[in-house]
Each structure stands twice: as structure tokens, then as C-alpha cells.
Amino acid sequence: MENAKRSWRNVLGRVVFWLVVAAVVLMGVMTLVLDFMRRDEPKMDMSNVVSAPVVPKPDVFSDASADGACMLYIKKMLHDPDSAQFEHSRESSIIANGARAVVVRSVRAKNAFGAMRKKDFWCFLELRNDQIYPVFIGEDGNEGEMKRVSVLLKDWGLAGKK
């Protein structure tokens, strides 16, 4: 009787072991297939972002349209756009001057190492031909980009405004 119990446990143990092995192999194959499918997704080319309109113009170049356009352009620049968590819109700074707007927006997103980081971005937007175009999107804290921010603020007559 005891030998029958041992053989039953032995068979049951082998079945469980092979089920686990099959599940691990199946998960590995599914991961490879998904990675292969993602490989064919088009990569974003940021070189032509200035010439490509993204957001249709609302009736008026409002704070909401400038803020929304800024969030779209920032997401395109992030390493992991799906991880983007924007601060509430009342936390953003928006300066509008005719057909031009400057938006300062905070976002938490994953960097290349997978760590969540909070960054502030400067979005210089311009309204042309019923479309909102980015003139410059810069990351706060980057010395070279902040020099360009200073120049643009001065050129647009917005230096010192909040």
C-alpha cells in the first residue's frame, strides 16, 4: 500500500513539474513573439517635429489648448511615453502672447533605467495656419536648452513675465 502511495506521489510530482516547465516555456515564447511584433513598430523621428502639425487649432489660442499641445509634444520626447504622469494643469505656467505661447509643464516619467523622474519642460508654441506648432521644447536643468529658453523669451518679448 505504501509503495502505491509513493508511486502516486511520484507521478503527481512529475506532472506538476512538467506543467510548470511548459508554462515557463510558453511564457518565454510569448515574450519573444511580443518583442518581435514590437520591433516592427515605427520609431519616432523627432527631426521633423517642427514641421509637422499635431493639434488642430481651437477657436482661440487658449491656455487649455497650449497646455494640451505641450503635453503631447513632451510625451513624444520621453523614453517611455506610456509612463508619463503630468502634474495637474493648475501647476503649469502659461504665458500667451498673440499667436505664441510658452508653457512650463512638470511630468513624472520613466527614464532609460526605468526609474521615475520628475522633470520640468519649457514648450514654445506658435499658432500658424490653424495648427499649433512647437518652436522649441526644452528640459529645465539642461544648460544648453536653458540658454535657448532665455533667448526665445527675450525674442518673443516675454522675458520677466510670469
What is the CA-CA span between the terminal residues?
A: 87 Å
Described by the principal axes of the CA atoms, the overall outline is: rod-shaped
Radius of gyration: 26 Å
Q: Average pLDDT across residues?
A: 77
SS-based class: alpha+beta
Q: In sequence order, what are the helices and strands, one letter per element?
A: HEHEEEEEH
What low-confidence regions span 5 or more consecutive residues with pLDDT below 50? none
What is the oligomeric state here?
single chain
Number of E strands: 6
Beta-strand content estimate: 25-35%
Q: Helix fraction?
A: 40-55%
Q: Specify the biggest β-sheet.
A: 6 strands, antiparallel
Number of helices: 3
Q: What's this entry about, in short?
A:
The chain is α+β, with helices and mostly antiparallel strands and 162 residues long. It contains three helices and six strands; from the N terminus they run αβαβββββα.
